[in-house]
Protein 1
Amino acid sequence: QVHLEESGGGSVQAGGSLRLSCTSSGDISSSKCIAWFRQAPGEERKGVANIDLGDGRSWNVDAGRFTISQDENVVYLRMNILKPEDTAMYYCAASRFPCVLAGLGTLDYKSWGQGTQVTVSS
């Protein structure tokens, strides 16, 4: 399996920006889709964005503020105009299925990073 490690989280004021990084190592060739998820305390883990490593196509839940991109073995999540409701632990995950099949549910993602905390104050 691929090993994933997130970085770039932190505490920002509402309206600020962060860029999260997901660095892959190990069996990188097994991954066809990388996705970002987030989970606030007491809530379900929810998909934020994914990017297909084969064709570069991507999808995200808030295209007006969030952008997912990939450069070599790093997948980024750029988050602009952050809101307090964006506060969560952010995880990246890898799927052996292409994104069109993996989607943004957790079921088909078998490799996960440890998470990076994002806190947005009002």
Protein 2
Amino acid sequence: QVHLVESGGASVQPGGSLRLSCLTSGLNFKIHAMHWYRQAPGKSRELVAAITSGFSADYADSVRGRFTISRDTTQNTVYLQMNSLQPEDTAVYYCHTQRQLRDYWGRGTQVTVSS
């Protein structure tokens, strides 16, 4: 069974930083692309960042230059380093992967950016 567990969400002030973690199990982590999505209240879920098995990364325009996705193949964990956080980044952040055309999601971790 595939399990994705996010952690690291918190409340921070604008300009602050957080690092989210997604611990995976039940899959061959090394051969799967991993993704971070987020969903703000009243908004649709959007793709924030993606990293391939070859460690190539892509970002949404709204976070490019501020967020960095990375992965640790030894710990089967994907990270999202978030810098220069703004109130617009407030959302539940979800870890996601796809295996054999099936989607797998974590339960999410809350990030709140406010003064």
Protein 3
Amino acid sequence: QVQLVESGGGSVQAGGSLRLSCAASDSDGYTYSRYCMGWFRQAPGKEREGVGSIYTGNGLTYYAGPVKGRFTISQDSAKNTVYLQMNSLKPEDSAMYYCAAATSCNWISLRDLKSSDYGYWGQGTQVTVSS
């Protein structure tokens, strides 16, 4: 099974930055080298939405429209860790942020950011952006 450990959430003022980390490990012998790794978020009373994703095999990334130009996903393959760098944060970005993994990655999972395509999830980390 894949375990995902998230860190980096917190409270920040509008215009500030945060970096979230997600460290992956797999007790069943799956390799990190061809995962889809996604970031999702959910605010109270709203549906969970995709933020962005990265294919660990080549670093290809996709971003949802509301975060394009402000958020960046990267990885450190040696550490099996992905990052979500969030800049120019807005109050509308406040949400519980989740890291997720699909061990059998495909282009649809990477591009469409459908929650059902990701079988493993982290515990979530709260991000609060104040005015």
